[in-house]
Design goal:
Helices cover 67% and strands 0% of the residues. By secondary structure, it is mainly α.
């Protein structure tokens, strides 16, 4: 068995493990949301009760999609063809767009649930959180000011 065969076998195994992890996260999130939906639906008739369930499901979906994207990247890690790179670019674009809109909806719904609680900063183009803009009304007192 050559090193190339060993790398390909290891890559296929890693892809399978990461894909299963992503599918498991999505499945667990869907089952959890379905059970909570039924339990809360029997006890309460208010639509506001279901918003936290949707938020949690959205977080599970986002995490599962991240795992699936990681598996797609791993799939093209060992000697990719231009066809595979093109497919990866299309898949990555679609999944990144899905994650963007899921995260945006999660932030909006969190603001509806608790408008007083500051939501986490929205991720920037690189996925990293952007620093929050300082609140000018919360400025530090001047030195010597004893109010």
């Amino acid at each position: 068995m050559s090193w190339d065969d060993i790398l390909r076998t290891g890559d296929h195994l890693a892809v399978a493990v990461v894909e299963v992890a992503g599918a498991a996260v999505i499945f667990v999130g869907a089952v959890w949301a379905a059970l909570r939906f039924v339990a809360e639906g029997l006890r309460h008739r208010s639509a506001a009760v279901f918003t936290p369930i949707r938020l949690t499901l959205g977080r599970f979906l986002t995490l599962g999609l991240e795992f699936q994207l990681a598996a797609d990247i791993l799939r093209t890690a060992v000697s990719p063809t231009f066809d595979q790179i093109g497919k990866l670019a299309a898949i990555a674009t679609i999944r990144t767009a899905l994650n963007f809109f899921l995260r945006r909806e999660i932030v909006q719904e969190q603001r509806q649930i608790d408008p007083d609680r500051p939501s986490s900063p929205a991720p920037g183009p690189s996925g990293a959180a952007q620093p929050a803009t300082p609140d000018p009304s919360a400025a530090a007192p001047e030195p010597g000011d004893r109010s």
